[in-house]
């Protein structure tokens, strides 16, 4: 099913660049999408894949360069424009209308009509039901989307893309939240589209899937296209090397940790409909990774342990002392700190200065005669900036001007300055460039070797395998495997995370 | 329902990794549960309404005489018309505080026009009121969508500004019933086939907008916009919805219906000055909230809101008839709104938990 690459691409990106302030998210990138081709788009987080997708789907527009449809330059002013050109998109995080029914979510913006422009409800339901049947899923089209699992929401997104005969299907990590069976089903749909002559752009971090489905590949690094060619000519290790731009093994200089006394003890923690019966322990000096797919409930567990979210059942103890559920202040007092997943929303006050942000968690100690002492704040912030090798202009600059990695360091400084005994860190390197990533890893390693217990939620497999002393894998709200550093490998974690095989038995 | 969801599924167990697809009977249970809860809510309102009418009537039989009842319903008609427009705006996750001021402005200009031109057909006055209201609504909509200013702030501003304009236009004058043509006043007191004209107008407005929001793509898009607004509006953007245009249109309709409310006000009371309709905005929002329109957008129906308006209006009349202290009247209305909100929260939590459990069970079964 390979088409000669001389045919005019249905949609193409031609020399597109996009920058946000000083950050060049995309540099002179070209990418053709030809009918009958499944193209993989590979690259690390922050390589510019999302920006590229946004431009192809009309969410964003390039500063220079252009989008071509059937060889003609066009400007997608909105997603409606790109949809009219036949581009459908499935994003990693489903974007649906929670209050509306599954069927209405599928047809929104293109309701089938009957007389007087009324909505053809029976027709709408029948059409959506047919698509869902074709996908082989048991989902009621009349049911509201609210309360659906991420995987089911993803199915709705796929149904949406199928409901209009897309010529181009863009899938941004569509499989991140899907189980093995659901992935197979999705790939069946993709192959059917491919045979009908549609072009597919497939983004995934799972190499086996990429080699399974894709025919050609575009590799990106730091906003640039660094490779474009048939996938069969690019062996796996070579692909990874091009993505990362260096040898992967050197990335995690793991120092052997001296594991001390039990710090955190969680027993039977549950939250109705989100996660169930979570048992986990973290000892001093130990890094425990909580791995799994997006939507498996990892962040929710972390937040429930810290007390930002309510658990419905279970016990959380710190240093042998039981903590009340849902009370973050008690957790902080017991020596816990939580670095949240979303720095911009939950971790930092973006308009506030670097200095103020890094001392925000300890305002009480920054006082002198009842007033905040700028000198104390400055001294403290400078000390942490030095220790974490923060790259900044002045301490008075707003935090928003820093790069993602340096923002993460400020969040770390803020919480580390409270001298915690246990650090819960959610996606420590999401959206951070490769160089700074290694620094964040080094900092976490150093802290652990000083006796800090670390509970790390991470979706990045190399990070999990490289950093953790122990790996707990979650699938659909339950811990499905506990692996020691020696036992943990890519295959075992992925299997447990997708609920595919009995990793637990294998080990026992 | 008896299986507890928290039964731990054997971790990654089972001989077949994902299990063969199980053919279950198609379930529409999720929908049915939510439907039931919503219907229970509207039913509950009607039960409350019946209870109020019954109890008040028993305590004070005068409440049941035709005059008192028609009085209540006529007062409600104006609020109900405005509530229909407000519902459209709230569903998109916005709010319109300016409807009371729009009512005053349009009521006065409509009355003034007809008073000065007694031979003019009354419909011209009504149309003028609607057009003025629509223009004010357009101003609100443009400020909210183009200016990217929250609707609460914009309409708080226009609420005061338009009230100011009303004072400026009236110049302290007042229109009295004797200035107005009889044909117009008949609109407020007359009836068609035994149904008071104002009620008829309100019913037509409610039915039109109930259908528009239920059976037309335009109306469903309003719900979609409000529903996606909670998570930043990406879903609406990706679906290619023209959110700004829809929101502006919702404000224009809210304004136009407030204008129509103005004409109804002038026809019903005959007396109009710059303070007309003061505080109506909160009564209208209260009616929508009591009627189950979620202030966070995305859910609620025009019909429910109309029932909410009737319940609030009836309670107010009932309390007056029962000669309850003014303070307690206000407190009762406030309590009703709080109960309604608490009830909605409870229903939302319940149905969400139920739906979650269902998908969780479906997945473990698969």
In short:
The complex is a heterodimer of chains A (508) and B (366). Chain A is of the alpha/beta class and 508 residues long.
Q: How would you characterize the overall build of this protein?
A:
The complex is a heterodimer of chains A (508) and B (366). With 508 residues, chain A is an alpha/beta fold. Chain A has three domains: 11-245, P-loop containing nucleotide triphosphate hydrolases (Rossmann fold, 3-Layer(aba) Sandwich); 247-335 and 422-508, Rossmann fold; 348-419, no CATH class. Chain A has helices spanning 49-56, 79-84, 102-107, 121-135, 150-163, 180-195, 207-213, 236-244, 298-306, 328-333, 343-347, 354-359, 374-387, 404-416, 434-449, 461-467, 490-497, 503-507; strands spanning 11-20, 23-33, 38-42, 64-69, 72-74, 87-90, 168-172, 199-203, 216-221, 224-230, 262-271, 275-283, 287-292, 313-318, 321-323, 336-339, 367-368, 371-372, 422-426, 453-457, 470-475, 478-484. Chain A has a six-stranded mixed sheet, sandwiched between helices. In chain A, helix 4 packs across helix 5. The longest helix of chain A is centred in the middle third of the chain and has 16 residues, at 180-195. The radius of gyration of chain A is 24 Å and the shape is globular. The two termini of chain A are 45 Å apart. In chain B, helix 3 (99-116) crosses helix 10 (243-269), helix 6 crosses helix 10 (243-269) and helix 7 packs across helix 8. Chain B has a two-stranded antiparallel ribbon. Chain B has a single domain, classed as ABC transporter involved in vitamin B12 uptake, BtuC (Orthogonal Bundle), CATH 1.10.3470. Chain B starts with 28 loop residues before the first helix and ends with a helix. By secondary structure, chain B is mainly α. The chains are: A alpha/beta (508), B mainly alpha (366). At the A-B interface, helix 2, strand 22 and helix 18 of A face helix 1, helix 8, helix 9 and helix 13 of B.
């Amino acid at each position: 099913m390979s088409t000669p690459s001389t045919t005019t691409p249905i949609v193409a990106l031609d020399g597109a660049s996009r920058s946000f302030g000083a950050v060049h998210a995309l540099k002179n990138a070209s990418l053709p999408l030809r009918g009958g081709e499944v193209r993989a788009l590979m690259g690390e987080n922050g390589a510019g894949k999302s920006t590229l997708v946004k431009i192809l789907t009309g969410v964003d527009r390039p500063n220079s360069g252009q989008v071509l449809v059937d060889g003609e330059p066009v400007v997608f002013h909105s997603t409606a424009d790109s949809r009219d050109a036949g581009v459908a998109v499935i994003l990693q995080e489903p974007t649906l209308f929670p209050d509306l029914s599954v069927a209405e979510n599928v047809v929104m913006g293109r309701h089938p009509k009957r007389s007087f422009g009324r909505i053809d409800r029976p027709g709408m339901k029948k059409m959506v039901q047919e698509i869902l049947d074709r996908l082989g899923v048991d989902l009621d089209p009349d049911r509201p989307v609210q309360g659906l699992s991420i995987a089911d929401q993803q199915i709705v997104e796929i149904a949406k893309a199928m409901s209009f005969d897309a010529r181009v299907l863009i899938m941004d990590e569509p499989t991140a939240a899907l189980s093995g069976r659901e992935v197979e089903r999705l790939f069946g749909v993709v192959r059917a589209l491919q045979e009908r002559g549609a072009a597919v752009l497939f983004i995934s971090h799972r190499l086996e899937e990429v080699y399974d489905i894709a025919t050609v590949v575009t590799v990106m690094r730091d906003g640039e296209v660094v490779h474009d060619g048939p996938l069969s000519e690019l062996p796996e290790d070579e692909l990874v090397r091009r993505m990362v731009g260096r040898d992967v093994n050197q990335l995690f200089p793991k120092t052997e940790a001296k594991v001390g006394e039990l710090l955190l003890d969680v027993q039977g923690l549950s939250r109705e409909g989100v996660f169930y019966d979570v048992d986990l322990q973290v000892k001093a000096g130990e890094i425990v990774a909580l791995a799994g797919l997006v939507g498996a409930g990892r962040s929710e567990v972390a937040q429930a342990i810290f007390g930002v979210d309510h658990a419905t059942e279970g016990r959380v103890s710190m240093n042998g002392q039981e903590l009340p559920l849902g009370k973050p202040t008690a957790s902080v007092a017991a020596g816990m700190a939580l670095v949240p997943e979303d720095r911009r929303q939950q971790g930092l006050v973006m308009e506030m200065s670097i200095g103020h942000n890094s001392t925000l968690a300890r305002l009480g100690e920054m006082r002198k005669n009842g007033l905040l002492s700028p000198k104390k704040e400055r001294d403290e912030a400078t000390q942490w900036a030095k220790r974490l090798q923060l790259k900044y202009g002045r301490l008075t600059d707003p935090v928003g001007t820093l790069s993602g990695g340096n923002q993460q360091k400020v969040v770390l400084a803020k919480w580390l300055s409270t001298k915690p005994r246990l650090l819960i860190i959610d996606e420590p390197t999401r959206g951070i460039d490769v160089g700074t990533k290694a620094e964040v890893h080094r900092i976490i390693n150093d802290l652990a070797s000083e006796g800090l217990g670390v509970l790390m939620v991470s979706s990045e497999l190399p990070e999990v395998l490289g950093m953790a002393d122990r790996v707990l894998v979650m699938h659909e709200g339950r811990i499905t495997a506990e692996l020691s550093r020696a036992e943990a490998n890519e295959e075992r974690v992925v299997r447990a995370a997708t609920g595919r095989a009995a990793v637990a038995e294998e080990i026992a | 329902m008896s299986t507890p969801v928290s039964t731990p599924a054997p971790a990654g167990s089972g001989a077949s990794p994902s299990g063969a697809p199980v053919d279950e009977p198609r379930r529409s249970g999720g929908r049915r549960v939510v439907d039931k809860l919503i219907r229970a809510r509207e039913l509950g309102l009607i039960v409350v309404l019946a209870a109020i009418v019954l109890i008040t009537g028993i305590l004070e039989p005068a409440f049941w005489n035709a005059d008192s009842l028609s009085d209540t319903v006529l007062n409600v008609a104006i609020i109900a018309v405005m509530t229909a427009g407000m519902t459209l705006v709230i569903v998109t996750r916005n709010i319109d505080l300016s409807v009371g001021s729009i009512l005053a402005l349009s009521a006065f200009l409509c009355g003034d026009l007809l008073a000065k031109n007694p031979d003019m057909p009354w419909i011209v006055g009504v149309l003028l009121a609607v057009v003025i209201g629509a223009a004010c609504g357009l101003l609100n909509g443009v400020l909210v969508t183009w200016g990217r200013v929250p609707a609460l702030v914009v309409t708080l501003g226009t609420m005061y500004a338009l009230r100011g304009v009303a004072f400026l236009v009236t110049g302290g004058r007042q229109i009295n019933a004797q200035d107005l043509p009889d044909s117009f006043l008949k609109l407020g007191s007359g009836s068609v086939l035994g149904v008071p004209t104002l009620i008829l107008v309100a019913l037509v407005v409610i039915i039109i907008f109930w259908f528009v929001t239920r059976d037309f793509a335009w109306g469903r898009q309003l719900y979609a916009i409000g529903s996606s607004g909670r998570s930043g509006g990406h879903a609406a953007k990706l679906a290619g919805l023209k959110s700004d245009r829809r929101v502006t249109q919702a404000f224009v309709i809210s304004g136009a219906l407030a204008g129509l409310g103005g004409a109804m006000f002038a026809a019903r009371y005959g007396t109009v000055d710059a303070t007309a309709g003061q505080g109506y905005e909160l009564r209208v929002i209260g009616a929508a909230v009591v009627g189950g329109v979620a202030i966070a957008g995305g859910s609620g129906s025009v019909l429910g809101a109309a029932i909410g308006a009737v319940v609030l209006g009836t309670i107010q009349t009932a309390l007056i008839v029962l000669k309850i202290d003014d303070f307690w009247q206000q407190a009762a209305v406030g309590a009703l709104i709080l109960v309604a909100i608490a009830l909605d929260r409870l229903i939302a939590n319940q149905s969400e938990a139920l739906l979650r459990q269902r998908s969780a069970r479906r997945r473990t079964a698969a």
